[in-house]
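Quick check before the chapter quiz. The format below is the same one you will see on the exam, so make sure you can read both the input and the output lines.
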Amino acid sequence: MAKKIRLQIVLVAGLLLGLSSTASALGWGDRSTGYLYEKLFNNMGERYLSLLEDKATDNPNNLAPDKRSICLKRYGGILNDGVLDIRIALGYFDWTTGSNVGYSGRSYGLSPSMDIGAFEALKELLTSRCSGNARFCGFQQSSEGSSVFVRDVMIHGRRIQARVEIRFSSQSEILSDNLGRYREQQRQRTQYMENYFSKALREADAVFYFGHSRNGGGPDFAPPVFIGSTNKLDYSGYYKAQRPGFKKMLNALSSGSKQAPVLGLMSCASRDHFLSRTRAAAPNSGIITSMDVLNVDEVYTAMIGGVDALLRGQCQQSFYQSIRMTNNNQKFITMDGMFE
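Here is the expected output.
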């Protein structure tokens, strides 16, 4: 089993805190080799996929009748149109440290964004050559655009077209630019992402949000809101008090004729922040959440495991294992309502 990546990036109440000793230790990219954090996310993904390569794919016919029935019921509505529609919404994923972030002689300022690097890494992982049994691979870029990827997969004996779409929230990696010279572009991108996420919740087969919980104020697709001129996020006065992203998500789930059968809330302590009211709004959706303050790799790799499990049509125990392939994922990642 691949050794777990050791990181000093910790999500605390939806805020990334702490610095590793050196940028090179984190595997950051630069303009010549990629975006900031891109290589970090690529390495995390590759290591997790190496664990999934040896995992067997379920054959529902080998399950006990009651378990087979539950599994086929979950996938019945998902696969009946011959397309597995998976959409990934990357939130505005700032790394707020309280000090400037620098790498390779360049300053990225306060609170640089991670979601652009994650986007590029996910693209690379999806289009990489498959090895073993893993299926988060082998995709081709669709003619729809650079954010959509397609491939055929066999699920429960049926050939299905898998479609994975990924979108990110930050106009640039640099917060001061997103609040300054790119302010209008960032406003438009945030609005686009909020609409994208809401639409996905009403249309897609599976939706994954990867970003900040904002202490219950997320899912969030906008630059951070600070207390006055400080570099401290306004949790008590804004995020926790108003819960803007959460209200928008609940409204989207309650306003359509369809709700995504699978919803992954890949953010810090998302079970405590979001699960109860989300399940009340979408009682037939299976929901993947985290149970504590986590390293970024736990929620990121669990998302990859969840998508891979869907691409195989994994059932109860196997699906649960796919999102919990590391020791920390076993402690902190869970799901509710998926096969119950």
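If your answer matched, good. The chain has twelve helices and 13 strands.
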